[in-house]
Amino acid sequence: MRLTRHIPLLFAISSSLGYELLREYAGTNFFNGWDWFGSWDNLTLGDVNWLSEADAMAQNLAYINSAGNAIIKVDNTTNVPLNEKRNTVRITTTDFYSVGTLWLISLRHIPFGCSVWPAFWSKGTLWPNDGEIDIIEAINLMDHNQMALHTTAGCTHESIGNNFQKGNNIDTNCGTGSGCTVAETEPDSFAEGFADNGGGVWATQFDVSGIFIWFWPRPSVPSSITQLSSTQTSLDISTWGPPSASYPSGPSCNITNFFTPQQLVLDITLCGDWAGTQSAYTNSACGKQGPTGICYNDAVVGSGANYANAYFEIEWLRTFTNNPSDLPSSSPTTDSGVAIPTGATSESSSQGGSPVVVVTSTVVAGANPSGDPITGNGVKGQIGNGCLGHGRLGGRMLRMLSIVVVYIP
Ligand SMILES: *[C@@H]1O[C@H](CO)[C@@H](O)[C@H](O)[C@H]1NC(C)=O
Ligand SMILES: *[C@@H]1O[C@H](CO)[C@@H](O)[C@H](O)[C@H]1NC(C)=O
Ligand SMILES: *[C@@H]1O[C@H](CO)[C@@H](O)[C@H](O)[C@H]1NC(C)=O
User: Fold this and answer.
1) From the CA of 97, how far away is ligand 3's center (Å)?
2) Would you call 137 a catalytic residue per the annotation?
3) Active-site entry in 20, 24, 137, 158
4) Which residue among 132, 313, 315, 347 is the active-site one?
5) pLDDT score of 163
6) How far apart are CA 325 and CA 345, in angstroms?
7) Does 254 contact ligand 2 (Cβ within 6 A)?
8) Domains of the chain as residue ranges with CATH
9) What φ, ψ does residue 108 adopt, rounded to 5°?
10) Residue of minimum CA distance from atom 13 in ligand 2
């Protein structure tokens, strides 16, 4: 008798591959559940003040537009005098997202232009000890996105098979300054191309089997994502194909040893220790536009008219979990405020001697030795050279979900 009660749960889990909506940041609720930095950029040394929530709202640098989308932007109307910084925004989720969660973001516009350095990324409590996942990050006149992991020493980007990711590896050591970086190869992942195309969607799977990042330009967003709604909250990722960047857990990097629960961050800085460097700015087409070739002098100081494109327009950010016990008991879209336990997913329904349902997910890499090697040519605008894509064995990620019912008398 007790067993039959739990059977619908088993079907619900297996039909959705385990992912259920945990929290949605969207529309007038978008700005609930974030910390605002409220200080100058002392992290990447950009020439900006990241405002408090009250100041950002009052200065119209964070608001919901008429389409119902969230805007986060650089101040483009204030005349900034020499030696002062320009105002912008950096927000961090108060929730921490553990192994077993998946994060989707739908954007219409990403900040771009000379000196502009936007990012959507995640971090653990301590940097770099608890790991960093860069999902969207590009600078200046780059025309494509770059993804990366940052860890302590000892984690290198494992390549399982030639079809394991669509992007091109730039750097495979996750413990270096630039991290283990992958250049996006899907079209229209940044700048005008992204905006003109209606934007797009990124998915990040933070899993015991590794970290996997997908990007779809708007016309290619899969129906499993476009169908999501307030009533359709289960996500089936089985038809997504190879990610843009795959960081499988394995001997060269056990992901769960380098990443603790992550907070999601959206920020925009200007210049700083990537976009403002001599190699990235002064020696690029940006440097030739201004009188001095120095990022701060030529771009940040002055009217700000050059920052009309320095804004994020966010349709929604949704987080999912494959651990049903993490779901709030009422609506999945209400505040959860929980750190989901790290480790293998498991659910136990223990109402006095009842069955225990154990859900485990594993990745199986299928052999596919016939593909072409990934080449790393034509990557523009990155710091450092050497696009060294490797892929010898072929293979595609397959997710297997096993459900075991154990009866505890
Ligand atoms: C940056 O500034 C914030 C706010 O003042 C402070 O809490 C933090 O410790 C600073 N970080 C560094 C690396 O200086
Ligand atoms: C990673 O480490 C955890 C715990 O230390 C272990 O359970 C897991 O099997 C390891 N994964 C891989 C791919 O080696
Ligand atoms: C500032 O940027 C917004 C877009 O975020 C644009 O609509 C507006 O025209 C810009 N203002 C100026 C003065 O450039």
Assistant:
1) 35
2) yes
3) 137
4) 132
5) 67
6) 9
7) yes
8) 2-407 (2.60.120.200)
9) -100, -25
10) 250
pLDDT on residue 368: 25
Q: Which atom of ligand 2 is nearest to the CA of 251?
A: 14
Q: Provide the pairing of β-strand 132-137 with 116-123.
A: antiparallel
| Residue whose pair of structure tokens reads 């050497």 in the numeric block | 386
> Whose CA is closest to atom 10 on ligand 2?
254
Cis peptide upstream of residue 324 (ω within 30 degrees of 0): no
For ligand 3, mutation pick of 64, 66, 69, 76 (most atoms within 8 Å of CB):
76
Residue nearest to atom 8 of ligand 2 (CA): 254
- How many Å apart are CA 47 and CA 68, to the nearest integer? 30
Name residues whose C-beta falls within 8 Å of residue 236's C-beta, 6 or more positions apart in sequence.
15, 16, 17, 19, 224
pLDDT at 162: 65
Q: What stretches in the chain show pLDDT beneath 70?
A: 1-17, 161-163, 329-409
Ligand 2 centroid from CA 348, angstroms? 22
Half-sphere CA count of 100, side-chain side, radius 13 A? 25
Instruction: Determine whether the shortest distance from the Cβ of 256 to ligand 2 is under 6 A.
Output: yes
Q: Give the nearest ligand 3 atom to 308 CA.
A: 2
Ligand 2 in reach of 362 Cβ (< 6 A): no
Report the pLDDT value the prediction gives residue 159, as an integer from 0 to 100. Answer: 82
